[in-house]
Design brief:
The protein has two domains: 121 residues, 3-Layer(aba) Sandwich (Rossmann fold); 268 residues, no CATH class. It is 43% helix and 17% strand. The protein has 17 helices and 14 strands. The strands form three sheets. It has a six-stranded mixed beta sheet with strand order 9-10-11-12-14-13, with helices on one face.
Length: 408
Amino acid sequence: MEYIKREAERKFCEMSNFFKVVLVTGARQVGKTTMLKKLADGTGRTYISLDDIMARELAQSDPALFFQKYKPPVIIDEVQYAPQLFERIKVICDNSEECGQFWLTGSQQYDMMKNVRETLAGRVGILNLYSLSQREKSGIVFDEPLDFSFETLCKRQNKVKPNNISDVFEHIWRGGMPRVQQADEEMRQEYFNSYVDTYLMRDVAQVGGVTDSARFLKMLRTCAALTAEQVNYSNLAQSADISEPTAKEWVRLLQGLGIIYLLQPYSNNELKRLTKTPKLYFCDTGLCAFLSMWLTKDTLMNGAASGHYYENYVVNEMIRGYAYGKKRANLYYYRDSNAKEIDIIAECDGKIHPLEVKKSANPDRKEVKKYELIDKASLERSYGGIICMCDTPYPIDELNSFIPSNLI
């Protein structure tokens, strides 16, 4: 299978030159190991996977001996299986000024992350890797940070093909797991079946102590049916015949394993948060479509849930863009007591970028009127607009544009 260059490579290499340890986290099968092996190619860096029982037992029972056998620089895969290594890594780091000695991967689990942050504080950089974005599949790299200005959008437009609904929904339906990119419909189905049965169910049992896999799967399917909506724990509990506290715990578990992303509601002193409930998105739309039994791209594109999947796709592209880019942003949504909602608020450099998402090539420009509530709250608003299926960027007013979704 041909390697697809990852947008995160630039950031990872910068971190490796700055930190003594770099940990790449993320869901299973998103390409963490493949990326690190590719970057280590020809450097003589040793690779060890703790999926190997022998290596794992040595790491757990005798970390000092483990590092005598596997001397840095090293890649240690699935490091969550041996948290005993962290203390030893700390000692080795403190005895050397060399950066990038340890490249670690781990499925993002709460105990491991807590352990890493406590033990390796100041020595470790953490990078979250997601499944492939549409940009990565197309081999497009945008040079300028996304500020939603018309000028930046026009620069980006020069690098892409015109927006195409069929291409977008092919990406949404297939998802970004590297293994399914060349798979036909039957093998895609088998891949996701196996992914849920082997990786996901094993992880929820190991990490969350979930023994009732049938109920867990019911709740997971309900999450998929409610993607891009506010989390309703009562509905989730009812669907799987579990208690609400259990539903909350299982959602937390799915978030920790990198399966779902919870977009928090925006609030500050000026703009009161009237809802405390996050919105739920799947980190991989292909897995979401599989769980909801959308068997082809066309049935998904023409189905009742297509607008929700399109919103999920836009949120995913933005999460990836900011995670790998030079500038970070906090993403939120906003909803007030009059049910006025702004789909996405990107907060960057103290400025607010309000964004609506519409699966239309010609959405109503009046949608941007609701952004006035930000002005009334005397917050510093910057460029925004409507992310949609239009072909090219088009200005609506001084601050807002129609934004083709393939420029995000």
